[in-house]
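Question:
Now give any protein.
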Amino acid sequence: MHVSDDLMAERPAEGPQAPRKKSFKGTGFLRLWTGESISLAGTEITFMAIGIIAVTTLAATPWQMGVLEAAESAAVLFLGLSAGVWADRYERRRIMLVANLARSVLVLAIPVLFWFDLLNMAVLYVVVFLVGALSLLFDSAMSAYLPRLLPRSQLERANSWMEGSASVGMVAGPGLAGILVQIVSAPVALVVDSVSYLMSYSTLAGLPKAPPSADPADEEGHGAESGKDGAEETHRAQVLKGLRVLVRDRYQRPMTLAAAHFNIFHSMFFAVNVLFLLTVLDFSPGLLGATSMAGGVAGLVGASCTPFLTRRLGQGPSLILVYAVPGLAAVLVPLSAGAGREVAVVLVSVSTFVYTFAVVVNLVISDTVKQTLVPDHLLGRVTASTRFISWGVQPVGALLGGWLGTRFGLIEVMVTASVGLVAAALWPLFSPVRTLIILPGDGDGDGDGDGNGEPEKGPAPVEGGDGRV
């Protein structure tokens, strides 16, 4: 695999005697992690502050708030696959820089238009859609960039750091947005948010470049993407190539189907979760927020425990376990109906903690497996294709949860969703994923970081660039 001279200069040398755990110092990862964490916090603040502006300034109706929520999801459906092509076609650090700069400008446009009395809901729809699209592009490039920055032996620990900061950002971001809005007003909060993207830009600017890797088939002069086809045809061919790899890959296919299955029932459960907590359990908004804080703590604990868990059980068995656990945790919420206030608070907090712990471990393992086994020149497209499928089904689950809750009751739909969540573990259980014990580079530093290796059991999932297994 081709790796740029810039990255090779920063990547620490590996050898057969390398220690199991290496410091991130000198790799550039800490700079990437800082920039990604700031960017993530900025995105969370953006969506929360925009929602507050819609309600308090523009007096948005429930329907308009629904459209605003859907605008973010629409970015995944309309641009999800293209984001992967761009992440593989162009220099990845530059993509992250451009995404941060563009998001800064878009977010800043809202307070400017507000101060000139030109702000309306249509503007918010467009900004939310574009920020969602740029966030997707940033994430696709960042996920594909990480294996170029670090050797395989450090990918799991690096992904643990990433998911740990993500879980904290998802809890702290909305809270910080609320504080900023309370202190300085929503428009000024978005100015601060715009600056956060510029801070992320300046942090990432010091990273080494990562030019796109060449397709091995193209290097031999007979790649499917070579030639002088039109831009649209080439783009379509590259999108289909990423999807073909995903469909044919003996590991990525069941993992993606499991994620899609899980997200349908996850969305079904959380479509009615807040309504259940506020109306059935009679939680106050403050108590609701306090119990959700357990998720932030669980994210940090889960991220730090993942390497230990995979060393003891293996990647595949660990993944099966963390797919089954969230459903068992989720059912504690409907079971708390009729219990006393103290018991209900404990059950909901435990449910939130265990659920989030398992999801974070799941994300760390899934990202590490993908980054280790998928060739670098296809990684952006496979990542985007995975998210297109697994995230694209979420509106279906949410609508189904709302409809079932209205027709049969909140407790019934939450129990059904909990059972469905447990069933997601069947995909990795009855597939080659269960045989994944040790990934390349998980030993004593023997990985070469080329993203094209072989697990301890079973052949490499992708060979060359044609997506065969």
About this structure: Residues 1-20, 219-233, 444-469 have pLDDT under 50 and may be disordered.
